[in-house]
């Protein structure tokens, strides 16, 4: 059996005295879509940063594409990153570069391909994400959904084996969000890549995931296929799914005090 | 990855075998464009391509466009499933001529 593309083994991380991730174990197989879900403060973003090699765990190990990313050499880590694409939540497009130049950047930085080849690759990816003909636009001229699509195009321009998507449909209206979900499924279907999606969007998670890991207070609360989670939701999981946003009591005096500073007696 | 050029008679055939990726696609590009410097038609046999990434597909597009500009033709023959999926993703299956076999591609070009 092929080694999983990602293996997380007993990952625990502390920020000072606070435990932010506790005994996380998971694996992602070749071609699998894993969705990491959880509310604010659940630890899902922290887990993503560990998978990207941006944070060091206090305990445990993370293997990606066969490498222990916290113990391998810089050259080995660079090799892992070449086969990894990341679509950041806000898009993280360079505002001074056109859409096309944002997408071509990884190819120009990391390959010695001819310019003509790169041009075709960029236009192909724009076609895939349905931004054909928009390569000359600047990021500021794009809608929220277009920014997400451009970010996805840049993330997959090198045809990575592994794609990370941080909140790919957050802040989008339902129709545009569904389009992003479809695009993620299309990329996996055509390119066979493994995809890790971090999201708090329940509908999106259940639509695209092969497997869902639900985090709560830094620990795995539940994991399984969407069908398994639907069939056997624990009480805690149901509460998490049904949780309404907590709105603090409105304190008019305190608000006025904040507005006026110390002028209010 | 290997590219064998068969230019012994009729329409030349480029047989690509193995994985075409960022490292190997420049060799594919060069081999195809070299043929098209001398000939204006070419059949690319993709039956033994296990994997092709967008840089490989871009090389096919460039060869196709080069031949067209010269009034010629590049056809893809016996496209393997992995290669077909990538072509479909970019909707290039609707642009590049894809034929079932070298024989059918050859017969079409000869017409």
Q: Look up the CATH topology of chain B.
A: Transcription Regulator spoIIAA
Number of domains of chain A: 2
Q: Strand arrangement, largest sheet of chain B?
A: 1-2-3-4-5
Beta strands of chain A, count: 10
Which spans of chain B of ≥5 residues are poorly predicted at pLDDT below 50?
Answer: none
CATH architecture designation of the largest domain in chain A: 3-Layer(aba) Sandwich
How would you describe the shape of chain A? Answer: globular
Q: What structural category do the secondary elements of chain B indicate?
A: alpha/beta
The sequence of SSEs of chain B as H and E is EEHEHEHEH
Low-confidence stretches of chain A: none
Number of helices of chain B: 4
Order of helices and strands of chain A: EEEHEEHEHHHEHEHEEHHH
Structural class of chain A: alpha/beta
Quaternary status: heterodimer
Gyration radius of chain A (Cα, Å) is: 20 Å
Describe this structure in words.
- The complex is a heterodimer of chains A (265) and B (111).
- Chain A is α/β, with parallel strands linked by helices and 265 residues long.
- Chain A has 2 domains: 6-83 and 162-263, 3-Layer(aba) Sandwich (Rossmann fold), CATH 3.40.50; 93-159, no CATH class.
- In chain A, 39% of the residues lie in helices and 23% in strands.
- Chain A has 10 helices and 10 strands.
- In chain A, the strands form 2 sheets. In chain A, strands 6-7-8-3-9-10 form a 6-stranded mixed β-sheet, with helices on both faces. A 4-stranded antiparallel β-sheet of chain A has the order 2-1-4-5, with helices on one face.
- In chain A, helix 3 (99-110) packs across helix 4, helix 3 packs parallel to helix 5 (144-156) and helix 4 (115-128) packs across helix 5.
- The mean pLDDT of chain A is 87.
- Chain B has 4 helices and 5 strands; from the N terminus they run ββαβαβαβα.
- Chain B has one domain (2-100): STAS domain (Transcription Regulator spoIIAA, 2-Layer Sandwich).
- The mean pLDDT of chain B is 92.
- In chain B, helix 1 (25-38) links the parallel strand 2 and strand 3 (41-52).
- Chain B has helices at 25-38, 54-69, 81-89, 102-110, and strands at 2-6, 13-20, 41-52, 73-77, 98-99.
- The longest helix of chain B has 16 residues, at 54-69.
- Chain B has 111 residues and is of the alpha/beta class.
- A 5-stranded mixed β-sheet of chain B has the order 1-2-3-4-5.
- Helix content of chain B is 43%, strand content 29%.
- The chains are: A alpha/beta (265), B alpha/beta (111).
- At the A-B interface, helix 4 and helix 6 of A face helix 1, helix 2 and helix 3 of B.
